[in-house]
Amino acid sequence: MARIVVGLGNPGPEYDNTRHNAGFMVVDLLAENLRVSYWKDEAGAKVGLVRFGDDDLVLVKPQTYMNLSGKAIAKLAKAYDAVPADIIIIHDDLDLPEETVRVKRGGGHGGHNGLRSLAEALGTGDFPRVRLGIGRPPGRQDPADYVLEPMSRPVAGKLADMVPHAAQAVLHVLERGVDSAMQEYNAG
Questions:
Q1: Hey, how many other C-beta atoms are within 10 angstroms of the C-beta on 138?
Q2: How do the domains of the chain map onto residue ranges?
Q3: Fold classified for 2-185
């Protein structure tokens, strides 16, 4: 059985230091900790394969830009025979305060183009999510500009501090399930 962990983000160095690439940051840390030694190009994504317990674990960074990421994930789900419940999505979340990590089972897209694309391509929004809070933009700043602007050093530091916590949340989901992870990470 294969399980898929997807970090949402945008490809290219111009997006490396943006809030929208929080998912990529978590997947990169997981890959490092799980000793993924090779990334291959598959179905419009960077894919790292590793054994995790009794399962094949597929770490994914879509390379199709956020609003088209569902196409790559649908292809990978088919290739690795994974159902939506076996696909963990890691993403930034405007509706959570900065420095907050939460786990969620399914739900809507909340205006997040990556989640919208995934739900459309998979035919459901019923997949586990690890959400990294980035807060709302100040004043009347357009949320699209906010998530794609380069982060200041203090903001980047806050996000970097959340990444290991989010990676642990992903491992908790993989090892003990979504309900257990929700109890652990959503308290308080």
A1: 7
A2: 2-185
A3: Rossmann fold (3.40.50)
Question: Six-digit token pair at 125?
Answer: 């929004």
Could you tell me which residue, 188 or 62, shows the higher pLDDT? Answer: 62
Question: pLDDT band for position 109 (50/70/90)?
Answer: confident
| pLDDT > 90? residue 110 | no
Average pLDDT over residues 3-20: 96
In whole angstroms, give the CA distance from residue 110 to residue 11: 22
Report yes or no: 60 and 2 within 8 Å, Cβ to Cβ.
Answer: no
CA pair distance 177, 35, nearest whole angstrom: 22
Q: Look-up: residue for tokens 């990529």?
A: 24
- What lies within 8 Å, CB to CB, of 148 at 6+ separation is 10, 15, 18, 19, 20
Structure tokens at 81: 């025979």
20 is an active site residue: yes
Please state the pTM of the whole predicted model.
Answer: 0.96
Residue spans of beta strands (DSSP E) within 37-123: 39-42, 45-52, 55-62, 87-93, 101-105
pLDDT of residue 187: 77
